[in-house]
Structures are given as structure tokens and as C-alpha cells.
């Protein structure tokens, strides 16, 4: 799996590098980060899990093809999963924290980016996620309480869509929603659902 992730990253940066060499003025590379509000959706959940609050961070590039249209590839760490609320009656671990099911990915979205007018743009495109961590954390605020888990599929295919405003300085703010098409557990209708808000800077 590590070889697959490394090969994907090298391929992505090779594409960016090739475009930068052919016309470096057209390509921008930057960094971004933000907050995730993630949960699961689907008919086989058997409940309504609370969202897990985590973060995303990584690298972004913009390759313009016209004044209004660009392709935007990214490579991000994305903390996903959901929270399991506990009541006082069933808190058998003597723990007043929520239990977190943590399902973390390296996400590689490739988005079509359309400018509606100067600065304001909408984005949408496919995203492939490589699972790098899956565990149940009984003490999310401490280093203890982690129990390794291995039930979810290693690769998640999803759709990412959102809106962004980019300032002349290169600073941008954005909001995005990601919906996973992959069944996280084979033959079960359970999918990733993630809202994201963040900021970034293009160099």
C-alpha cells in the first residue's frame, strides 16, 4: 500500500512539474489546511453517528487552461470517521469522553475549477483516498486508549465539490463536501461523508 501511495504522489508531482517547466507562469503551487466534520452515511448503519471533528492539511496546485477554467490536483492528509456518544449509564470504561472511530486517509482529489467571476470559483471532481489509519480511540484527548481496527476498505473513491474565494495575494478560503462512493465494508451500504472548511496560500 505504501508503494501505491508513493507512486501516486510521484506521478502527481511529475505532472505538475512538467506543466511548470512548459509554462511556469501558469502553474501555482501552495499549501492548505482546515477542519473536517466527518461521519458515515448509508442504509446499513443501524444508527446515526455523531460527526468527528478532525483536520486536513497538504499541498495544492492550480493548472490554468483558460481565464476561467483550471485543473486543481491536491495531496492531503484527512482525518475522518465518527464519534460514538456515551451515556452515564453505559460508560463502563469510567470515561466521560466520546469514543472516536478514526479512519484517516491520504486523499488525492483532482478537481475542475471554474471561476464565476474574479476570485470566486466552484470546484468538483473525483478523489481517491488511501487508508493510513483505522482505530477506535477510547480516550481521544490522550495518547492512550487506541485499539487498532482493520475493517474498512484500503481505498476509497469519492466525489469532492465546493466553493472557494481566492484573493489577489494568493490567500484563499474554501468550503467543500466529500461523498464516498466506495462501500467501506464490502456488501454494506456505508459510505464516508465529510464537510470541510479551510484556508490556504498559493505561492
Would you kindly provide a written description of the structure presented here, covering whatever features stand out?
With 203 residues, the chain is mainly beta. The protein has a single domain (2-202), classed as Porin (Beta Barrel). Helix content is 10%, strand content 59%. It contains 1 helix and 9 strands; from the N terminus they run H-E-E-E-E-E-E-E-E-E. It has one helix at 2-22; strands at 28-41, 50-64, 69-84, 99-117, 120-137, 146-148, 155-166, 171-180, 191-202. It has an 8-stranded antiparallel beta barrel with strand order 1-2-3-4-5-7-8-9. Strand 4 and strand 5 (120-137) form a beta hairpin. The chain is elongated.
Features:
single chain; 203 residues; mainly beta; Porin; 8-stranded antiparallel barrel; 9 strands; 10% helix
Short description:
The chain has 203 residues and is mainly beta. 10% of the residues lie in helices and 59% in strands. Strands 1-2-3-4-5-7-8-9 form an eight-stranded antiparallel barrel.
Structural class designation: mainly beta
Strand order, main sheet: write it out. 1-2-3-4-5-7-8-9
Distance between the termini: 31 Å
Poorly predicted residue ranges: 16-24, 87-94
The appropriate CATH architecture is Beta Barrel
How much of the sequence lies in strands comes to over 45%
Give the SSE string: HEEEEEEEEE
Q: Which sheet architecture does the biggest sheet show? A: 8 strands, antiparallel, barrel
Highest-level CATH class: Mainly Beta
Average pLDDT figure: 86
What is the molecular shape? elongated
Amino acid at each position: 500500500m505504501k508503494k501505491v501511495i508513493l507512486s501516486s504522489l510521484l506521478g502527481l508531482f511529475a505532472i505538475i512539474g512538467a506543466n511548470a517547466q512548459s509554462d511556469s507562469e501558469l502553474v501555482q503551487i501552495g499549501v492548505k489546511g482546515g477542519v473536517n466534520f466527518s461521519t458515515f452515511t448509508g442504509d446499513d448503519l443501524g444508527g446515526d453517528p455523531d460527526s468527528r471533528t478532525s483536520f486536513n492539511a497538504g499541498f495544492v496546485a492550480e493548472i490554468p487552461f483558460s481565464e476561467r477554467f483550471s485543473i486543481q490536483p491536491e495531496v492531503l492528509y484527512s482525518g475522518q470517521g465518527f464519534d460514538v456518544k456515551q451515556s452515564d449509564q453505559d460508560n463502563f470504561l469510567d470515561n466521560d469522553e466520546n469514543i472516536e472511530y478514526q479512519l484517516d486517509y491520504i486523499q488525492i482529489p483532482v478537481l475542475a475549477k471554474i471561476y464565476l467571476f474574479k476570485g470566486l470559483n466552484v470546484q468538483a471532481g473525483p478523489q481517491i483516498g488511501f487508508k493510513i489509519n483505522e482505530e477506535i480511540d477510547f480516550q481521544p484527548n490522550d495518547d492512550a486508549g487506541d485499539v487498532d481496527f482493520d475493517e474498512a476498505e484500503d481505498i476509497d473513491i469519492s466525489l469532492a465539490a465546493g466553493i472557494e474565494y481566492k484573493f489577489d495575494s494568493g490567500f484563499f478560503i474554501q468550503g467543500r463536501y466529500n461523498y464516498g462512493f466506495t462501500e467501506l465494508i464490502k456488501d454494506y451500504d456505508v459510505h464516508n461523508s465529510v464537510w470541510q472548511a479551510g484556508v490556504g496560500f498559493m505561492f
